[in-house]
Amino acid sequence: MAGEDKDQLAQAMSELVDSVSRLRDLGRRLTAREEKLVLLARQAPKPRPAAAKSAAKAKPQAAADDDRPRGDWTIAAPESLEAVRAEMGDCHRCKLGAGRKNLVFGEGNPHAELMFIGEAPGADEDRLGRPFVGRAGDLLTKMIEAMGKRRDDVYIANILKSRPPENRDPEPDEVAACEPFLLKQIQVIRPKVIVALGRIAVQNLLQTKTPISQLRGQWRLYHDIKVMPTFHPAYLLRNEAGKKPVWDDLQQVMRELGWSLPRKGK
Ligand code: SF4
């Protein structure tokens, strides 16, 4: 094997060990096969410093070290969204399971090019078991229609699948328990673009504390999928001035996906 190939393999092994360590940090027990892979990876030669540096440089503008996405992208994707839903069952993996009326899994095209990810179900979503219904949901539907698509063309989900009491912010242990299922949904759908809606979705997906006002409108990466951070529709209901920047962000998404932009004056 050529030296460069060896370095790339060693770099990949090192990243695998990092990913599994993060998985352990989230409290996930490893399967016997994963344990064996980690053992093999640990025995692999370490990448030479120069190669490690160039491999890091070759990464797209993902993220600084403090905002690497969580979750192990290297584990084989589940077969289908139905399989992910079945695995969740009547989920009580965190304390929110006790207070919800309905688990809000997500809905839309399982082969969507575009996925919208919000924060957590609110009262209407909890009551109906569907994401983004109510006034903020109606506005999201209008935003999708302004892009020339229907809700059924995209996939819509949240970071959390059970409603936090009084719509408070999700707590870290709740996100840690629920996010692995979102990761699996993303692995099944493999969207080309994710639009992250609002502070909670953006900061959790991108693992950053940077304010949404600074992040919006700039492409980021969630693993290898492009992410456009933008404001949440609920924020737009209170802040009319936010609509223009959000529309700018959505037009960037349309260009990225090769969707035709609406003609001026239409
Ligand atoms: S928020 Fe997620 S992990 Fe917590 S109980 Fe609901 S579905 Fe399960």
Descriptive key words:
266 residues; alpha/beta; Uracil-DNA Glycosylase, subunit E; six-stranded mixed sheet; 11 helices; globular; binds iron/sulfur cluster
Structure description:
It is a single chain. The protein is 47% helix and 9% strand. By secondary structure, it is an alpha/beta fold. The chain folds into two domains: 56 residues; 177 residues, Uracil-DNA glycosylase-like domain (Uracil-DNA Glycosylase, subunit E), CATH 3.40.470.10. Strands 1-3-2-4-6-5 form a six-stranded mixed sheet, sandwiched between helices. The chain is globular, with a radius of gyration of 20 Å. The protein binds iron/sulfur cluster. Iron/sulfur cluster (SF4) binds next to helix 7.
Largest sheet: 6 strands, mixed
| Cα end-to-end separation | 59 Å
Q: What would you call the shape?
A: globular
DSSP strand (E) fraction? 5-15%
Cofactors, ions and other ligands in the entry:
iron/sulfur cluster
Please state how the strands of the largest beta sheet are arranged side by side.
1-3-2-4-6-5
Our count of helices gives 11
CATH superfamily of the largest domain: Uracil-DNA glycosylase-like domain
Q: Strand tally, please? A: 6
> The CATH topology of the largest domain is what?
Uracil-DNA Glycosylase, subunit E
Average predicted confidence as pLDDT: 83
Task: Calculate Rg over CA atoms.
Answer: 20 Å
Indicate the low-confidence ranges by residue numbers: 18-27, 46-60
